[in-house]
Amino acid sequence: MTPRLLVIGGDAGGMTAASHARRRVGVEALEIVAFERGDYSSYSACGIPFFVGGEVTDIDALIARSPEEHRRNGIDVQMRTEVVAIDRGARAITVRDLDSAAERREPFDQLVIATGSSPIRPPLPGIEAPGIHGVQTLGDGVALSDDLARLDPSKARAVIVGAGYVGLELAEALHRRGLQVAVVDSGKQPMATLDPDMGALVAAAIRGLGIELRTETKVDAFETGADGRVSGVVVGDSTLAADVVVLGLGVEPNAALAREAGIEIGPTGGITTDPRMATSTEGIWAAGDCVQCHHRVSNRPVTIALGTHANKQGIVAGENATGGDAKFAGVIGTAVTKICDSEIARTGLNEEEAREAGFDFATSTVEPTTRAGYYPGAQRITVKIVVERTSNRLLGAQILGKEGAAKRIDVLATAIWNDMTVDEIAQLDLGYAPPFSPLWDPVQVAARKSTYQS
Predict the structure, then answer these.
(1) Start-to-end C-alpha separation, the chain
(2) What sign does the CA torsion over 337, 342, 345, 350 have?
(3) Closest by CA position to 229, among listed 157, 176, 330
(4) Smallest Cα–Cα separation from 246: which of 186, 176, 164?
(5) Could you please report the per-residue DSSP string of 339-402?
(6) Alpha carbon distance 9, 27 (integer Å)
(7) Active site residues
(8) Do the beta carbons of residue 310 and residue 18 sit within 8 Å?
(9) Which pTM was predicted?
(10) Of 387, 400, 390, nearest to 426 (Cα)?
(11) Of the candidates 246, 244, 239, which has an alpha carbon nearest to the alpha carbon of residue 152?
């Protein structure tokens, strides 16, 4: 009988694992079946805010590979089919057809769990009202876009609950569509992964767009109108009127299926794996947002929901499920986003994370320009770095600026990945021409300032 590889989840982690396994092993040697409970496979979740905002007008542009394309490549993708149980002892899963509600058992020799993550929905009064959206899957994005289409954007009011990456990207999307937008966050500054001083710059950029930002504000409930739809967000003694609400409170790993099967779950709530993406049960692998990762700088477990990690982990899981010996090298928390023309980036550890990890550190902040100061279009850029005092090793970095700012984080991410010191960064041979950078690139200006301070 042909061995079977089953994959739970039809997006980045799962379908990358399936595709990589298929490239390694011929159709005759391995049967591969993937189960996806939604309506789309292999899509760009990171592109959803830009579809909602109208920059991307064709939903198909976000789909890397359709179920039909996967099937032509020898992967049986079964859509709208939810896996409801894993039987480790019997080496079988129970699947449910969401259209007919019929259930059946599917045996496996190897299994990849790629169940992703879900938007956090706090148990507040009114949270289930129509018009309140959590946006994680492409189906969620389509539902939000369809809901917005019923509104007159010149009169409609939107409230974003949470000022993290997704919250701010969707605030921009709704702002672009012409809605009146308010962002509510319980923290002192938006983007908790940034230090407060950098978060304050983001707050100023948000307010500068005409978007209302309320920090240190807790949501208590959601009000509804006569039609049952959301009509307001209750914050303390006041209520923010809302025709649509988007939850941007972050996500949590979809690890319940693994937990119920007796597979080990880590302290972050994600599935525990080794560097080979193997779970605590032999022959069962995991990849993507549902997985707990190792942070290379703090040496602590983390869950970071990014397609970049999911794809890499999927390759490792797919290779090892077919007899290989690949390893996932870990993460350092690199991320970029934007709010209209303001670009934001971070990598490694911020001050609080460095403190919690036990580092003795110093920080350095500079404000040079993205191009030579005399060249047209030069813009101010703020670069902050976190450096270990004893070794001068770069621990983390944050960047805020206009066009040409965010992707500079990649230089600093590469430096952190390779345990470089600020002295070494200052000596890097980086590209220079007035249209692209000053004589000293901003990342090197920050490194040089740190070397002088040490």
Answers:
(1) 66
(2) negative
(3) 157
(4) 164
(5) ETTEEEEEEE--HHHHHHTT--EEEEEE--BSS-TTSTT--BEEEEEEEETTT-BEEEEEEEES
(6) 20
(7) 46
(8) no
(9) 0.94
(10) 387
(11) 244
The DSSP string of 85-125 is EEETTTTEEEEEETTT--EEEEE-SEEEE---EEE-----T
What lies within 8 Å, CB to CB, of 437 at 6+ separation is 370, 371, 372, 430, 431
Identify the residue whose tokens are 């980045």: 12
Are the CB atoms for 257 and 112 separated by under 8 Å?
A: no
The one-character DSSP state at 218 is -
- Report which residue type is found at 97: D
- DSSP state letter for 292: -
pLDDT tens over the chain, length 454 residues: 899 999 999 999 999 999 999 999 988 899 999 999 999 999 999 999 999 999 999 999 999 999 999 999 999 999 999 999 999 999 999 999 999 999 999 999 999 999 999 999 999 999 999 999 999 999 999 999 999 999 999 999 999 999 999 999 999 999 999 999 999 999 999 999 999 999 999 999 999 999 999 999 999 999 999 999 999 999 999 999 999 999 999 999 999 999 999 999 999 999 999 999 999 999 999 999 999 999 999 999 999 999 999 999 999 999 999 999 999 999 999 999 999 899 999 999 999 999 999 999 999 999 999 999 999 999 999 999 999 999 999 999 999 999 889 999 999 999 999 999 999 999 999 999 999 999 999 999 999 998 766 5
CB-based contacts of 112, cutoff 8 Å, min separation 6: 5, 6, 7, 8, 9, 13, 14, 17, 18, 284, 285, 286, 287, 314, 317, 318, 321
Run of H or E including 261: none
Q: What are the structure tokens assigned to 259, written together?
A: 């937990």
Within 10 angstroms of residue 36's Cβ, the number of other Cβ atoms is: 26
